[in-house]
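User: I'm writing a short report section on ligand binding and want a predicted complex to refer to. Could you take this sequence and adenosine-5'-diphosphate and write out the structure as tokens? A short remark afterwards would be nice.
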Amino acid sequence: MKKINKILVANRGEIALRVMRSAREMGIKTVAIYSEADRQALHVRFADEAVCVGPPASSASYLRAEVILETCKRLGVDAVHPGYGFLSENAGFAQMVEDAGITFIGPSPYAIELMGSKLAAKAAVAQYNIPMVPGTEGAISDVEEAKNIASQIGFPILIKASAGGGGKGMRVVENVAEFEEQMKLAVSEATSAFGDGSVFIEKYIGSPRHIEIQVLGDTHGNIVHLFERECSIQRRHQKVVEEAPSAVLTPELRAEMGRCAVDVAKACQYKGAGTVEFLLDENLNFYFLEMNTRLQVEHPVTEQITGLDLVKEQIKIAQGEPLSFSQEDLAIYGHALELRVYAEDPANNFLPDIGTLTTYKRPQGLGVRVDDGFEEGMEIPIYYDPMIAKLVTFGKDRQEAIEKMIRAIDEYQITGIETTLPFGKFVMEHEAFRSGKFDTKFIERYFKDPSVLKATPSQEEEELAAVLAALFAGQAKATTGTTPNAAPASGVSEWRRNRLK
Ligand code: ADP
Ligand code: ADP
Ligand code: MG
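Assistant: Sure. The structure tokens for the complex follow:
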């Protein structure tokens, strides 16, 4: 066993904090890296040591593998946790870390590389009899040939970037007339976004649900699954609401999808935490989509229903410890929901709405977990993913988790920017969601008229609260000469002062 004493978290925001919290509980020292835009960030304050790695742009800071590695060596770091996004699925970075004799908390560079290409992944799992979406086996470059294949598969089809991720690099083609133009666009997008223009064709499944399976593998060849997460509520092919377990999986289907996910992990000798994604059609047939070789944004819902801390499991695996449980030891308790609170305007096509969190008050109470990286008065930087927080609720069953989510959304106070909170409430109150009869077309089908959000009481309440707060601030100023809640003159926040005491 190789005991880890000091971890550098090569990430920012909520996930950096979340990783550091588990490390600290394990008695492991933490190192934060940050860009010039993140000097005041919570992950920087939480860490035992923090190092600025460059200017705001990701390419000049969080993506600078060499600088990050130098920092590791200089500070005597013995392991790197990459979080999600940034360098987490960069096989070259994982290799550099390992070559320097430092532990990469994640799978092998080989597994990252293999699963990073959707096409290579499909080829690697072919021997395991795993159902796949009908489509091309390899990359296609000849337009005429591609057109023929698309016609054989039957429109609509999807052109996908093999190296794609984060919902980007996908184009739906409705008929043969649109094909050529869409393919050209897909190739050029894939080239500019992922540095790899390889595209392939998949049948476009009409109304699928997105169901994914969490897996854990150790370095002794043991692989288990931690059941499913349903992530069908999406905008731009990216998740907004997730839950575990899914409202539609039977124990048999769960076991079968779990078995397939474990086989996918076996195909790349997977170690660490990973996720195997599937689509599930109306007849409950499932198809392998891809594997994400990292901790997923929505991992907290799995933690809530299994009672496991996935980051601790990742660290223990990286130390060479065998899993302390087998598949039979694992069971689902209760139900968990997650709402990604993005700085986006749901009434305006979910466009990012960057600004300052003039009010920021988290909900609390039994069964409510908030993973975030901000506090009141902070700005949401324009340089990175606009996620403010993940609001997670946990109840004895789905109904209770939904009730808690509605209560927590109402309790959450954010002003200064638009967020996905009102959209989350719309979902929780919608009959299709409550009855479990929904799929990835939820937004398209039921959220055509976003003006419904404007009528929700929480928005009106917010406006009223803002007016009252302004009035109150005016009064307070007149009587005491100070503004309530203003930053102390020293410029050091209350939080920081408490810590420095
Ligand atoms: P998850 O699969 O964990 O639900 P998301 O699709 O929401 O993840 O992506 C997690 C983060 O990683 C986001 O910040 C997203 O922008 C980023 N991301 C994921 N894949 C890629 C990729 N291939 N290229 C660039 N960014 C990516
Ligand atoms: P990414 O790497 O961007 O996460 P995925 O292959 O995981 O790409 O797909 C993301 C989402 O796009 C899925 O959850 C689903 O909503 C949609 N999608 C992907 N492939 C298909 C398909 N063949 N048919 C219908 N929808 C699809
Ligand atoms: Mg995916």
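A remark for your report: DSSP finds 17 helices and 20 strands in the chain. Confidence is low (pLDDT under 50) at residues 477-501.
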